[in-house]
Amino acid sequence: MAKPVRNYVCQTCGSAFPKWAGKCEACGAWNSIVEEPVSGGDVPKGLSGKRGKGVTFVALDGDVPPTIRRPTGMAEFDRVTGGGLVRGSAVLIGGDPGIGKSTLMLQVATMLRGIRVAYISGEEAIEQVQLRAKRLGVGVDENRKVSDITTELAAATSLRDIMASLDRPDCPEIVVIDSIQTLYLDSLDSAPGTVAQVRTCSAELIRLAKSRGFTLLLVGHVTKEGQIAGPRVLEHMVDTVLYFEGERGHHFRILRSVKNRFGPANEIGVFEMSDQGLAEVPNPSALFLAERHGNISGVSVFAGIEGTRPVLVEVQALVSPSPLATPRRAVVGWDSARMAMILAVLETRCGLGLAGSEVYLNIAGGLRISEPAADLSVVLALVSSLSDRPAPSDLIAFGEIGLSGEVRMVAQAEGRLKEAAKLGFKRAILPKRLSQAGGKKLKVDGIELIEIGHLQEMIDWLYNEVRSNALAATVSASRAQHQGSQTVGQQAGD
User: Fold this and answer.
1) Is pLDDT at 30 greater than 50 in this prediction?
2) Of the candidates 435, 436, 423, which has an alpha carbon nearest to the alpha carbon of residue 396?
3) Which residue from 193, 316, 426, 466 could staple onto 181, CB 3.0 to 4.6 Å apart?
């Protein structure tokens, strides 16, 4: 009998080492290396003398069968997946504990009318899933009778049992596994959730989904860094990777596509969490700006692009004096390193004194922004807070900032401006050369374009605009007070 070989595998990234160590040199995680036994017969020894069967090649311009999609009936979910679930594909959904992954999967499973769906839970009993369905009001029609929803429930964690139930001609068309970290294969000595178990169970399920033609939905846990737990190769094995994001203090959730072989990536779907489950939000810009108040310093509106959808969000900034030798810098919803770069540019290129001030930045609503086009809107909020002068309420801004203070061009400007005009905004600050991009002057009805090439131009425009508005308000108040005094004098004379 072959002597067992000991292998030490990182549970975060899947890297293997010949001996145990406290820190993984591949990903830098601490206390993540676990010993996993490997039998000597499983160690690859190279190719033997047996000849393979060969591979069949076809022409690149050959006939391609049409992609079969199944719309779920949930518009936001279909948008993120590229129009619906593709037959024979594997979709991975990750998110924080309690964010609503199981609720989303249960609602998607019950909205697929006339399609046989298998919901396999490894974390909850069947009664718990049924109670959640009753609480959400799914699985029955308006008369509280059983509808044409053909969702079947099961509670199992053994991969052999699940494979035996699915590997048949009359297999379900949609299979939901909640979650992949709870499954185990008895031929492996490691515990459920380890790298070997997650990799092997996922590979077998994906292989079966490709051969039988059903759509596989895998729910995955995430680490404290927000990445899907298990080996990184899991995200390469599946066709689509979705992240379910959101803050516990906010009432809405964001489903983001980071990988999609059958549609556009970086697409988002917005849902609102309520006692009746997840409700779709068809116009997220109106939701993010619903609680916006005017005439407040340190606030600006950014016109961003999430996938193919323009989204308007509110950027909030607070600059306050600090008694500390090292002032605090706190960022929520944006890149902290990019804010440090913006502060250095404002200090060096524009002469604004921010070194001794505490700076806080927040993207209202819990949305996380990653595109550099938000630089100009962040600067607008910072300058407004530093001067304690509110920016105009009908103004949006977008543009990338370089280290010399220049404002660079960004993509899809016309879509951003049209979304702003739809919501009632009248002016937009944008890069100067953007209007000349492609030899065609950019123009959107109802939006006045304020073109700038350097940050100092925007700061000067903001100070002049606020000063003129303040002067106009002072004149109007003075006239009203003067007219009021004349009226009182006339009444006294009468």
Assistant:
1) yes
2) 423
3) 193
